[in-house]
Every structure is written in structure tokens, then in C-alpha cells.
Design brief:
14% strand, 37% helix, 259 residues, six-stranded parallel beta sheet
């Protein structure tokens, strides 16, 4: 396995056509590439979901964690560019993953790589807006557990298992440190942004999505879905089916315009 393939440990896309669209999926804080495993079941010859594993996470737990968003995005850009091997690219990022996806897309454009044609984000305000976080990594473990409880997505039996949480918390803190390292410095991308929100997600509400329009020279489309911060996983296969349809329609429209 080449080093860049470590970023994509679950992907066996030998059946994917050279014209396939590769949807690289960046996870939320506390998650790993595994959160998108079910999405892969809906991959086909033309559309392939590719979960991204960050250094120090999941299958790469033995590697050194990268706490700097700029450095991480530089490495992710190189890995994606090599792994895609000329195929069309779309980025999907949820919560912290939205910031990673945006910064990686920016890095790829800046370096004239095979950059994504669409950026899809969910559960996060625009990078150009600074909002004070309810939790920061100077706080204690109880504050972090409280944050996880508020956000949802972590089973109650896991939150109440003190031994398990003692193991998980340092890894979750790493992600929060990474998220805190991101400082917006006027970065712009030139691809459309599709921004999604859950009706019950007050930290990334639908009316907060408009500011994503300020970080792209293309256009913004936004949509609201029933559910909390993790609506995308709760909706399951119907959400993934919707994503495939919207991505394929957007790319077909783009191809028609350039014909």
C-alpha cells in the first residue's frame, strides 16, 4: 500500500469507471472514516463514496495526530489528488469535517490540483464566521461529556461508561484541538457549495448557512432536513440517495453548459 492510500483504508473501487465521481467524505469531531461505511454500500460504477481517515484516527491510530488545520489540509490535498487519479471529485464534510473539506478544497485549487467540482457541507457555519464555542479544550472532561450529550450522536450507554470514555476522550479532544486551529484568512474557492442543516441543530441552523456564499466565487444552494446535528446519519439511505441524485444532476448540468 502506498502512503497516500492510508487516508482511504476502506476503499476497493476497482469496479469504478474512469469517469466515476469520487465523493470524499470528511468526518465530524470524535468520528472516524468508519462513520461513512454504510454510505459505501450505495456506491456504484459511476458514483463512489470514499471515507477519509485522518492521521491518528481509526485505522491510523498508531500514527501521529496532526493538530494544525493548514498542515493537515496540505497532506490531505496530496493524498486525494493521487488517489483520485484524474477522476472527478466531490467533497462532503460534516461539522469539523466541513472545515477540513473546505480548507483541503482551497489547498487543491491553490496548487492547481484536480480539485473538487462541488463542496457539500452539513452541520457547520461558514469558515468566515467566528462563533464562540460552547466547549473548548481548556475545559475539563465533564464539560466535554456535556458537550457530546448536547450534540447527540453518542449513545447514552457509551457516555455513561466511564472506563470507555476515559479511553475515548483524549482522541475526541484531539479533534477539537484541530478544529480550534482553523483561522479563516480570506480563503476563497471557485466551486458551488451545497450547505445542509438539521431543523433541530441550533449551532448550525438553516439561517446560518447563507454565509457559505461568502467563501465561494460560484454559488450556494442550501437545504434543511428534519433532525438534529447528526440528521445525515439518522436519515440513512434516503439521504445518501438524495446526495447521489443532486451530485449527478449538478455535474450533468455543468457538462451541458460547457458543451
Amino acid at each position: 500500500m502506498n502512503d497516500f492510500e492510508n487516508w482511504f483504508p476502506f476503499n476497493k473501487f476497482g469496479k469504478a469507471g474512469k469517469d466515476a465521481v469520487m465523493i470524499f467524505c470528511f468526518h465530524h469531531a470524535g468520528g472516524s472514516a468508519a462513520v461513512y461505511r454504510k454510505w459505501q454500500l450505495q456506491s456504484d460504477y459511476n458514483t463512489v463514496f470514499v471515507p477519509v481517515e485522518l492521521p491518528g484516527k481509526g485505522c491510523r491510530m498508531g500514527e501521529k495526530y496532526i493538530y494544525d488545520m493548514t498542515k493537515l489540509s496540505e497532506l490531505a490535498a496530496e493524498a486525494v489528488d493521487r488517489f483520485a487519479d484524474g477522476r472527478r471529485i466531490v467533497f462532503y464534510g460534516h461539522s469539523m469535517g466541513a472545515a477540513v473539506a473546505f480548507r483541503t478544497a482551497y489547498e487543491m485549487e491553490k496548487r492547481n490540483m484536480n480539485s473538487p467540482e462541488i463542496l457539500i457541507v452539513s452541520g457547520r457555519h461558514s469558515p468566515c464566521v467566528h462563533l464562540p464555542d460552547r466547549f473548548n479544550t481548556s475545559m475539563d472532561d465533564d464539560a466535554l461529556i456535556n458537550e457530546l450529550t448536547i450534540m447527540g450522536g453518542t449513545p447514552e450507554n457509551v457516555l455513561k461508561n466511564r472506563e470507555l470514555m476515559k479511553y475515548l476522550i483524549p482522541h475526541i479532544r484531539n479533534d477539537y484541538k484541530l478544529n480550534e486551529s482553523f483561522n479563516y484568512n480570506g480563503e476563497m474557492i471557485s466551486v458551488p457549495v451545497y450547505a445542509y442543516a438539521g431543523t433541530l441543530d441550533h449551532d448550525a441552523a438553516f439561517n446560518m448557512l447563507d454565509d457559505w456564499n461568502n467563501v465561494t466565487t460560484a454559488y450556494l444552494k442550501k437545504r434543511e432536513f428534519e433532525g438534529n446535528h447528526f440528521f445525515l446519519f439518522n436519515l440513512g439511505s434516503q439521504y445518501v440517495t438524495m446526495l447521489k441524485k443532486r451530485i449527478n444532476a449538478a455535474l450533468e448540468n455543468k457538462a451541458g453548459q460547457s458543451a
